[in-house]
Design a protein that fits this description.
With 344 residues, the chain is an alpha/beta fold. The protein has helices spanning 39-47, 97-100, 142-145, 148-161, 176-187, 200-203, 222-229, 245-248, 276-281, 296-305, 323-331; strands spanning 2-8, 11-16, 27-37, 49-50, 53-54, 59-60, 64-72, 84-87, 90-91, 111-112, 125-129, 133-135, 168-172, 192-197, 212-216, 235-240, 255-263, 285-288, 314-319, 339-343. The longest helix is centred in the middle third of the chain and has 14 residues, at 148-161.
Amino acid sequence: MKALVLHKAKTLSIDDVSLYEKMGDFDVRIKIKNVGICGSDIHYYLHGAIGDYVVKKPMVMGHEASGVVVATGKRVEHLHVGDRVCMEPGIPDSHSRETSLGMYNLDPSVRFWATPPIDGCLCEEVVHPEAFTFKLPDSVSFAEGAMVEPLAIGLQAATKAAIRPGDIAIVLGCGTIGIVTALSALAGGCSKVFVADINSEKLKICNRYKNLIPIDTKREDLAQIINTATDGWGANVVFEATGTDLLYRDIHQYACPGGCVVLVGIPAAGEGIFSITGLQAKELRMETVFRYAHKYPRAIDLVASGNIDVKPLVSAVYPFDKSIEAYEFASAKGSTAVKVQIVF
């Protein structure tokens, strides 16, 4: 079958591959429909690596996907041929201590699509465990189904923040993860969420949502705006969703005393520089996010109910035979696209 394969940095091709041929008793075979391009996909495309994860052999791209079940294993109970589904891309070791404690996203041996050396799902068909495959309601499109994966990260961040009804939050970053984090914060009870970025075009997406307030930090002083909006108190929660090292140093300035800072973005260098005294002076609680656990059913329900609308986030759609062009567009310097998807 055809697949989009990354050979090394900036070298993609559509190849014939032999993947996912064997199906176990608890597996389903899925014909892929929509696949989103994630920030990590772009990083692998541009640099051939993220930290210790290095592309050493050809790797099929993609991990945000939806599709249709075309075959089921003998012991599959809850899915049937013809079901429209989305797939959680990380498969943990069912016997690991992390999995037994419910933190399967932290299992060091998890097999995550398009994370070297594991192949992804940007191909015609995949085989996936039923336990990590979720049926989509009729009201949820394939495009929305492929947005469940990034939305799950936003829900993980909002859960870790322990939001209380009426909280005010700030999200640093207006990419896909920043916006789904902001929407998750609203769904979790925030009364308003400020979204800060230097990309004025991306910030326009906030105008599509009630109670998302864009701040163009090239033109506006974020600290001053938050100070005015909160009568000098600060935000209850600050989400960092860029992974930009320079933002860590001043992040405490935006939070209220006793507030929470949630680190969602991952720095490319793997480290950030904080003002420890700044954090201590406000007794700020810090939380970190690494993917998600047990969030797919909630994400699907929130999309199906209309409480979270992810449709405006899909900026461009490319057919599979234009996949390389899609990656070039999504990774272009200064791109204003929030989410680019590829369709089969």
